[in-house]
Write a structure and sequence with these properties.
0% strand, globular
Length: 92
């Protein structure tokens, strides 16, 4: 999974930093200008940590972006990951 380096041109983080540390600006740029290879690391992190830092960043960012295809897909990833995590916690 890779993300385009140009998504990081206005921030101090890099694609090499942990996904959980990527700021709103990177997530927004990925949603608005990116391709599936840019969304993939975000979605993977949300699936691993549905209530973690990236999930929160994604949730907050989705409030401010137009409801384009990428935003819809990532919103569904977030909702599904959280629903599955909650169901798994209820089974314990």
């Amino acid at each position: 999974m890779t993300i385009s380096r140009h998504m990081f041109r206005n921030v101090s983080t890099t694609p090499d930093d942990p996904v959980s540390t990527w700021p709103h600006e990177v997530v927004r740029a990925a949603i608005e200008y990116g391709q599936i290879t840019d969304w993939d690391p975000i979605a993977a992190e949300v699936r691993q940590q549905p209530f973690g830092a990236m999930a929160t960043t994604l949730e907050e960012t989705l409030e401010f972006v137009d409801p384009c295809g990428a935003a819809t897909i990532l919103r569904r990833v977030l909702e599904r990951a959280r629903r599955e995590a909650s169901a798994a916690a209820g089974e314990r």
